[in-house]
Amino acid sequence: MPAATPPTPVTGWGRTAPTAARLVRPRTYEEAVAAVLAGGARGSIARGLGRAYGDAAQNAGGAVLDMTGLDRIRRIDAEAGVVVCEAGVSLHRLMEVLLPLGWFVPVTPGTRYVTVGGAIGADIHGKNHHGSGAFSRHVRELDLLTANGEVRTLKPTDDLFRATAGGMGLTGVILASELQLHPVQTSLMTVDTERAADLDDLMERLSATDHRYRYSVAWIDLLARGARTGRAVLTRGDHAPLDALPRRAQGAPLRFRAPRLPRVPRHFPEGLLTRATVTAFNELWYRKAPRHRTGELQSIAAFFHPLDGVPHWNRIYGRGGFVQYQFVVGHGQEEALRRVVHRIARRGCPSFLAVLKRFGESDPGWLSFPRPGWTLALDIPAGLPGLGGFLDELDEEVAGAGGRVYLAKDARVRPEVLEGMYPRLPEFRSLRRELDPDGVFTSDLARRLNL
Q1: What is the pLDDT of residue 88?
Q2: Which of 104, 78, 283 is nearest to 183 (CA)?
Q3: What pLDDT, in 10s, does the model give residues 362-383?
Q4: Cα–Cα distance between 28 and 151 in angstroms, integer?
Q5: What pLDDT score does 290 carry?
Q6: How far apart are CA 107 and CA 127, in angstroms?
Q7: Average pLDDT, integer, range 324-337
Q8: Is the distance from CB of 290 to CB of 194 less than 8 angstroms?
Q9: Which is it for strands 173-180 and 139-145: parallel, antiparallel or unpaired?
Q10: Residue 182 to residue 203: CA distance in whole angstroms
Q11: What pLDDT digit, counting tens, does each position of 218-257 carry?
Q12: CA gap 199, 204 in Å, rounded
């Protein structure tokens, strides 16, 4: 068994609520089994690259299994577009290896620095959910280490698979998986960009044209008020075909490059993200966007992961960290979305990272977040006065509309509100009790929400 560290502070990407845990980094199945069986009274939780925003990969007083040591790509079928890899492999690494072969990961969130195990445990979604669904839809099978030390191979038809997809690591440790990939001809994107004057204009454009695009997202200005409330910049696109590339680029169409800028200083100056500074940024960002531009060629990094170019960008929010609040409400609940957007605008939340997307059909995972409808995500400095009470009010609005918040980004939702958001939560808890009666797998999130 690999040696564990002394209790070490662990936090999510939002850096809001660190707790101390013993870190263990297994490199083989056998080491992972040994680490789980030796987890102790406070149990264990798996962790990838630490991009869950809240407390999902923390375990106060217990063990945290750093799965990045299981990072081997075992097999690639370049004809069928299938890869078998261990759970600690990052999406970045998969892109480096697979793009030259003409394949792309089926779903990517706003960062490529997430592990495959984390992608399944959070059942991540991307700009293509309206057509492709969440990550678990593309998993053909996975190996799961359960509480008794057994490694089970699961298919999408298994209840335990459905509980694991989006289950936040609470059914066991994902060790490896087999993924179906998406074919591409180039490593560039062809992108259309346009402005929307307000929220209604934005929703109308997304509803009318999303079916034309594989990927679709809108940056939304949540500080704009009055007639401009909800104004936005839409960015939609698809993988560029070979004949869309200029002749000079056609010789190496699948080359993948990901530039990186200097990292944010460890101690970023406090108080820079105020309503005034973010208002100025949002105005500049909206005005610099083209009113309507089609067919622009962009790199994969620029289109999907612009913030990955700034290492440790989460430090921009200062020592207090930030909260990312993401919710979904169904089609037919557009008025609830309008009310939430107007409330955020009136409150003056200084958020420059806010996106609106449309979701397609629900995914098989019992606790998977997406459902058909509208999802809004925004970052807010954690030290904003009265933020907790304000977000509690938004929770009530979302729950009243039949919506839900995203567990992979949550750090503060109340357990009594969560009950109504995830109707299959009782089944999840029942399976957990049957599979893991001693609570071998647990986390700060699980204890907070009684999962």
Answers
A1: 98
A2: 104
A3: 999 999 999 999 999 999 999 9
A4: 12
A5: 92
A6: 8
A7: 97
A8: yes
A9: antiparallel
A10: 28
A11: 999 999 999 999 999 999 999 999 999 998 888 889 998 7
A12: 9
User: What tokens were used for 260?
Assistant: 């990186």
Q: What is the pLDDT of residues 251-274, one digit of tens each?
A: 889 998 777 766 666 766 666 778
DSSP conformational letter for 332: T
- Which of 40-44, 73-77, 153-157 is least confident? 40-44
Amino acid at 124: I
The CA distance from 309 to 429, in Å, is: 39
Ramachandran area for residue 251 (φ above 0: left; ψ -120 to 50: alpha; else beta): alpha
- Give, for 347, the enclosing helix (H) or strand (E): helix 334-347
At position 368, the amino acid (one-letter code) is S
* Rounded Cα gap, residues 47 and 58, in angstroms: 8
Interatomic CA distance for residues 348 and 354, integer angstroms: 13
| Alpha-helical regions (H) of 122-232 | 129-132, 159-164, 199-209
Residue 343 has pLDDT above 70, yes or no: yes
- β-pairing, 151-154 vs 103-104, is unpaired
Q: What residues have CB less than 8 Å from 385, skipping those under 6 apart?
A: none
Alpha helices in 20-126 (DSSP H): 29-37, 91-98, 116-121
Task: Please list, residue by residue across 334-372, b when 16 or more beta carbons sit within 10 angstroms of its beta carbon and e when fewer do.
Answer: bebbeebbeebbebbbbbbbbbbbbbbeebbbbbbbbbe
Q: How far apart are CA 265 and CA 312, in angstroms?
A: 8
Helix count and strand count (H, E) for the chain: 13, 19
Instruction: Assign 143 to helix, strand or coil.
Output: strand
Q: How far apart are CA 357 and CA 376, in angstroms?
A: 7
Residues of the chain by 3-state class (helix, strand, coil), percent to 5: 35, 25, 45
| Mean pLDDT of all residues in 429-434 | 97
The residue written with tokens 């990939």 in the block is 181
